[in-house]
Amino acid sequence: MNTLRVALLGCGVVGSEIARQMVEHADDLAARVGARLELAGIAVRRLDRDRSDTGVDPTLFTTDAVELVSRDDVDAVVEVIGGIDPARSLILTAMEQGKSVVTANKALLADDGFALHAAAEKHDVDLYYEAAVAGAIPLLRPLRESLVGDHVNRVLGIVNGTTNYILDQMDTHGAGFAEALEEAQALGYAEADPTTDVEGYDAAAKAAILAGIAFHSPVTLADVHREGMSGVTASDVASAKAMGSVVKLLAICELAPEGDAVGVRVHPAMIPREHPLAGVRGAYNAVFVEAEYAGQLMFYGPGAGGAPTASAVLGDVVTVARNRLGGVTGPGGSWYAERPVRPTGETVTRYHISLDVADRPGVLAAVAAVFAEQGVSIETVRQRTEDSGDAELVVVTHQATDDALSATVRGLTDLATVRDVMSVMRVEGE
Amino acid sequence: MNTLRVALLGCGVVGSEIARQMVEHADDLAARVGARLELAGIAVRRLDRDRSDTGVDPTLFTTDAVELVSRDDVDAVVEVIGGIDPARSLILTAMEQGKSVVTANKALLADDGFALHAAAEKHDVDLYYEAAVAGAIPLLRPLRESLVGDHVNRVLGIVNGTTNYILDQMDTHGAGFAEALEEAQALGYAEADPTTDVEGYDAAAKAAILAGIAFHSPVTLADVHREGMSGVTASDVASAKAMGSVVKLLAICELAPEGDAVGVRVHPAMIPREHPLAGVRGAYNAVFVEAEYAGQLMFYGPGAGGAPTASAVLGDVVTVARNRLGGVTGPGGSWYAERPVRPTGETVTRYHISLDVADRPGVLAAVAAVFAEQGVSIETVRQRTEDSGDAELVVVTHQATDDALSATVRGLTDLATVRDVMSVMRVEGE
Questions:
Q1: How many CB atoms lie within 10 A of CB A339?
Q2: Is the pLDDT of residue A389 over 90?
Q3: How many CB atoms lie within 10 A of CB A192?
Q4: Does B27 touch chain A (CB under 8 A)?
Q5: Residue B419 pLDDT
Q6: Is A9 annotated as a binding residue?
Q7: CB pairs under 8 A between A and B
């Protein structure tokens, strides 16, 4: 039986799991690949850490990643260092040396996936990255291969477990954002500095990757309209509940109605409780796909964690190894449709707006006039009067553009009877 | 640009959709394959039917399927006739002539998938069948390719839309089986003769295919323990509701705890409402996968219908076409693990048992003694006394084998105080 040699870059939570699984299940992997997979070396930053739990021969560790990816006896390189540099240059060096690459690096792929794909094509090697979006959930391969005969219209994803955990706590226990975040941090679901998650940067990188694949068009992180969820209040969540909805941080990739442009955005949104995404609890991820012929699909599972991410990486490693044995490469990047990214202002959706208003006659008429001026049609208005004489007005609109909505909000702010526009949230999934 | 020619066998609901999609999206498909896909011919039983809605050149229709699959200028054959014969012989003839095959034929694959895979391997052609299980849901490819580096422990599937629709109606509206079936028939979700669906034959074929792929072992329809759902009563559904559960017809494929055998069964079961499968409504399908590293995954979507099934078939056609251009074949059947199928009696699960008993002292003691004799441990007992002096006893057990449970039921039947064992249902997904 042949042997294929794999270089591993990084031996943190994910890397050590990959090494462990490769050692533990070597015979099964060999039967599935048709060749034995052997670890050629593992690049780490420091050699003095105890890594005996991985079961890996200690002589395999090295601090010279560049030398490792250039070795003649390495067939494939697995990159789980993360971040832009030196990951990018190591991947490019590996490809130049004819090695196929498997990576979980969403930041790098969202930043410049085309250059990586172009390099892979130039050097006739594979580039796979199932683990980069929604962890263990088989998602990119189904989109790239299973749905390749179909036409995706829309992708709605819960692709960040931290924020889903926080929002789920807020929904279930009525907790405020700060309290729920603290709990998530205590449980290890959120980082000490949670910015990347709660401000939507992580989800935005994944949205860019998803949109590119779903619409066969070049999309980067810079194209994604991003709003975080740190501003979501207990009152927003309660208001969503009152209308039979739940607040989720969504990555939304959609084709414009004419099919000639792509919209990509990340923001908190209200979705109806009957929507399959509404039932995604805790730190789980799920991606809902609307395709022209297949209809509504959903892919659900753990979006992070060492073992799940390693599972996705190893699936790619097996594929890369099989391709190498067959002397071929898999389907590469596909951007032939070259659809441009639509300006955010042209996004069409529904909105939920909470206003703090004076409780006196004529307020509703004045508010309604502002919506009418901008051509934004109102679906429902709910008014809640408090003993203090203040009132909360909750308006849910029909479909309108982001531009029209922004103009409406500016108009509302200018009204003397409107004390505050307390929140504006999109309503999706209907 | 190259052209690859596809022969289509069958032009019913699915076949006509495939033809229509190939014509409508010819340019997109060409961009994705890297070659134009052309319909070489369509085998039908009768030529005198109007098929102008497909947009297909009428001269392409033929009644000579054998000649069509043998033509020199055909690269791939798509079989959507269904049934065992002549589908089997046409597929084998196509392979002998060097054509790759895409099929949606679950009956044939569950009957003898190994022979088909062996023929594909012998003639160095592809065999793909994503549409055979759970329609449009990308499932077989994720199991065969994305999870290939992982180890599946269990698959729980709602893989028959008809029975899910019926059970959902019973759960939502308290309808009885007969009433819900009638409604399903009126809406076109159930056939006039619903046997294949309600007695679990359709789900059993899919279970056999899933088990074979998930456990890399040869499993056929004959290996599947099958119980239909026509015996599920409104009272069973209400009882499930009372314990926070819902009744679903499940296809269950699982590895024995020691990993040395495979269990495959189809039967109605109660699952907790918090389980992701519990929320699968109407005629939708979903498959829940438990893998060693990836954890809990779910794949959700439409399990049937012309357009969704055609989407899955076309995904396979694109893959087969790409492989052909690259001069390779994809990963074939994988049965290396050769795990035997475990006898049904060794299945371990929990049970929900309803007994019609006389309402007098000592009944519970006698009933409990029968369970104890067989080593079946009771988790909860609930008694409901009626004015008539009858009582219903609902027993939920801890885990026990099917053999022990059967012996228990025989013992209960023999008790003078037990008038009837009204229902026995497995409890899964906990």
A1: 18
A2: no
A3: 5
A4: no
A5: 93
A6: yes
A7: 185
Please choose, from the candidates A174, A162, A172, A180, the residue with its C-alpha nearest in 3D space to the C-alpha of residue A235.
A174
- Distance (Å, whole) CA B2 – CA B34: 8
Select from B138, B296, B301 the Cβ nearest to the Cβ of A301: B296
Fold of A140-302: Dihydrodipicolinate Reductase; domain 2 (3.30.360)
Question: Does domain A3-132+306-326 bear CATH number 3.40.50.720?
Answer: yes
> Looking at the complex, does the CB of residue B300 fall below 8 Å from at least one CB of chain A?
yes
CB A166 within 8 A of CB A181: yes
Q: What is the pLDDT of residues B156-174, one digit of tens each?
A: 999 999 999 999 999 999 9
> A122: closest CA among A157, A158, A97?
A97
Q: What is the DSSP letter of A340?
A: P
Residue ranges per structural domain of chain A: 3-132+306-326, 140-302, 345-427
Q: Which chain A residues are closer than 8 Å to B299 by Cβ?
A: 297-300
Q: Do B291 and A311 touch (CB under 8 A)?
A: yes
Q: How high is the pLDDT of residue B239?
A: 92
| C-alpha distances out from residue A280 to A140, A163, A234, A275, Å | 20, 12, 19, 10
The alpha carbon of residue B186 is apart from the nearest alpha carbon of chain A, in Å, by 23
Tell if the CB–CB gap between B300 and A150 is shorter than 8 Å.
no
Would you say A370 is a known binding-site residue? no
A140-302 shares its CATH topology with A345-427: no
How far apart, in whole angstroms, are the C-alpha atoms of residue B157 and residue A229? 35
Residues in chain B, pLDDT under 70: none
Q: In angstroms, rounded to a whole number, what is the distance separating the alpha carbons of residues A41 and A4? A: 12
Written as six digits, the tokens of B355 are 């007994």
CATH architecture of structural domain A345-427: 2-Layer Sandwich (3.30)
CA distances B185 to B174, B196, B197, B307, Å, are: 18, 14, 12, 20
Catalytic residue among B99, B122, B206, B248: B206
pLDDT band at A109 (very low <50, low <70, confident <90, very high): very high
What CA–CA distances, in Å, run from A133 to A26, A156, A209, B222?
Answer: 26, 13, 8, 39
- Supply the pLDDT for residue B353: 97
Q: Which CATH class is domain B348-427?
A: alpha beta
Q: Is B241 annotated as a binding residue?
A: no
Distance from the Cα of residue A6 to its chain's centroid: 28
Kind and range of the H or E run holding A52: none
Mutate to test the interface with B, among A33, A37, A146, A152 (most CBs of B within 10 A): A146
Q: What is the pLDDT of residue A430?
A: 81
Pairing of strands B245-255, B152-158: antiparallel
The structure tokens listed for B391 are 């009582």
Q: The dihedral of CA A57, A58, A59, A61: what is its sign?
A: positive
pLDDT at residue B386, as a whole number: 74
Predicted confidence at residue B53, as pLDDT, reads 81
